[in-house]
From TrEMBL:
InterPro entries: ChAPs (IPR015374), TPR-like_helical_dom_sf (IPR011990), TPR_rpt (IPR019734), Ycf3 (IPR050498). This is Tetratricopeptide repeat family protein. It comes from Lyngbya aestuarii BL J. TPR repeats lie at residues 63-96, 97-130, 131-164, 165-198. One of its GO terms (cellular component) is cytoplasm. Keywords: Repeat, TPR repeat. It holds the Pfam family ChAPs. It comes from the Bacteria.
Length: 276
């Protein structure tokens, strides 16, 4: 009898499986997406991202979770993942205009300009009073070389928001690529009237004046622009801001002058003077 082993007590226990309430999980997911949205408002994208990712697992049928996740991916330059999340948001809520606008921006960032146009225009049919969407639409047309359509959308955007100087500035970019230098300068001057601290139109005018032989005035304006924001000395940064080939070529010549090179060198020695 003593040689017969006693049964292990654990063998008599039936494992308990926790029963999760789907509704509670969804509410938890929606709570997480609220936290992520709050963090996003303070540009805490890296903190917001894991919350948004978890929220899509807990509330996979909520388009809001996928939409915010997609926009966060775009903010941290994970464009392909952002597109996938936003496309899922659109499948869940096909007629939602803001989702279409953000998806259009994602397509634009991915170089899919016609797809961006299709999404933004579809969103504008639902909600037309969004100047930022009109501005993005103008950018997409501009990148496709459809200059007249681009100008039309920039004008619509500015008509809705009178402080939107980038819309006027970008009309100048378009006109310069069209060979209308005087028309471009006029638009950049209008942009400066809206915001006198806007470095981009100041530098653009400086380049245009330099190509027309007004060198002293051009160099003075160029120094002012770079003192306001030294990033504009970087041609790659200018390209990201949609400066076209014609303007970039002229800018390269302008920045290569001894006076502008001296200004750039001085700014590099004093990084505190360069805008973030």
């Amino acid at each position: 009898m003593w040689s017969i082993p006693s049964p292990a007590t654990s063998q008599a226990l039936v494992p308990y499986t926790l029963q999760l309430n789907p509704d509670q999980l969804e509410q938890t997911g929606l709570g997480l997406i609220e936290e992520a949205a709050q963090l996003t408002r303070f540009q805490q994208y890296q903190l917001a991202l894991p919350r948004a990712e978890l929220a899509t697992q807990l509330a996979p049928k909520s388009y809001q979770t996928w939409a915010l996740l997609g926009s966060l991916y775009i903010q941290v330059d994970r464009i392909d993942e952002g597109v996938a999340a936003l496309e899922q948001a659109q499948r869940l809520e096909p007629e939602n205009a803001p989702v279409r606008f953000v998806l259009g921006e994602a397509y634009f960032r991915n170089g899919k300009y016609q797809a961006a146009i299709d999404q933004i225009e579809a969103g504008l049919k639902v909600r037309s009073d969004v100047p930022g969407a009109l501005f993005d639409l103008g950018n997409a047309y501009y990148m496709l070389g459809k200059y007249d359509q681009a100008i039309t959308q920039y004008e619509k955007a500015f008509a809705q928001e009178k402080n939107l100087w980038p819309a006027i500035n970008n009309i100048g970019l378009v006109r310069y690529e069209m060979g209308d230098i005087k028309g471009a300068i006029k638009k950049w001057q209008e942009a400066i009237k809206i915001d006198e601290k806007a470095a981009e139109p100041i530098l653009a005018i400086a380049v245009a004046l330099y190509t027309q032989g007004q060198r002293q005035e051009a160099l003075a304006m160029g120094e002012t622009a770079l003192e306001l924001d030294g990033r504009y000395a970087d041609l790659e940064f200018l390209k990201e801001n949609l400066w076209g080939d014609r303007l970039l070529n002229d800018t390269q010549k302008f920045l290569d002058t001894p006076q502008m090179q001296a200004t750039i060198a001085q700014l590099e020695d004093s990084p505190a003077s360069v805008s973030p």
